[in-house]
Design a protein that fits this description.
- The protein is mostly helical.
- The chain contains five helices and no strands.
- Helices cover 64% and strands 0% of the residues.
- The termini are far apart.
- Bound molecules: cytidine-5'-triphosphate and magnesium ion.
């Protein structure tokens, strides 16, 4: 008996899961590029601080980032939906995946500020997985997770996302889009 057996079902489930969360990846990655292209952007918290003396969200969460992120993620999801109609149930589901991702990113910034972590400073796990966790939680609470997202495919997706996040951020840093590699 081998310790590890190739599992075609797990691989298929993982690939389906990856397709399913792809709009969330796109939504999460778009703002950094969009804001770079625009040059300037307006902070979502309008510069406001809370009684702890820290910004509500900070300058890293902007209106332009939010709008470009949700719309690009949604558009990519809609395109995928026409090619792979079995992936999403309807367009609202795609919108929830995309907006859930941005909500998670914004919630992450809120938590970071409350913990006294400066904008742009790292918060391991929260930075990499917060967007995906809230995106999938939103689906869990509304449509329910699709059958191909099982505990094992979810574990693979989270591990893959950790690696992808570090990889794409390093790439964005090397391309001069980001000031830090994380
Ligand atoms: N960004 C944005 N609006 C968003 C999300 C991201 O404008 N809703 C842009 C900002 O320019 C941000 C960059 O994308 O600096 C990188 O995003 P992220 O790493 O999520 O933000 P941080 O700058 O690290 O800020 P924080 O510490 O609050 O996460
Ligand atoms: Mg960051």
């Amino acid at each position: 008996m081998g310790l590890w057996v190739f599992d075609a079902g797990l691989l298929t489930g993982f690939l389906l899961g990856l397709g399913y969360v792809w709009p969330a990846y796109v939504s999460n990655a778009t703002p950094v590029v969009a804001v770079k292209l625009l040059g300037k952007a307006h902070p979502l918290d309008l510069g406001a601080t809370l009684p702890d003396g820290r910004r509500v969200l900070g300058d890293g969460k902007t209106v332009e980032g939010l709008v470009s992120g949700i719309s690009t993620g949604f558009a990519v999801g809609v395109a995928m939906h026409t090619l792979l109609p079995f992936l999403f149930r309807d367009l609202l589901e795609i919108l929830l995946i995309s907006s859930g991702a941005l909500a998670g990113d914004i919630l992450g910034a809120f938590i970071k500020r409350r913990l006294g972590i400066k904008q742009g400073a790292p918060a391991p796990i929260l930075d990499q997985l917060g967007f995906l966790a809230v995106s999938l939680l939103t689906i869990h609470l509304t449509y329910g997770l699709p059958s191909f997202i099982t505990p094992s495919t979810l574990t693979l997706l989270l591990l893959f996302t950790l690696l992808m996040h570090v990889g794409t951020n390093t790439l964005a840093y090397l391309l001069g889009l980001k000031d830090t590699w994380y």
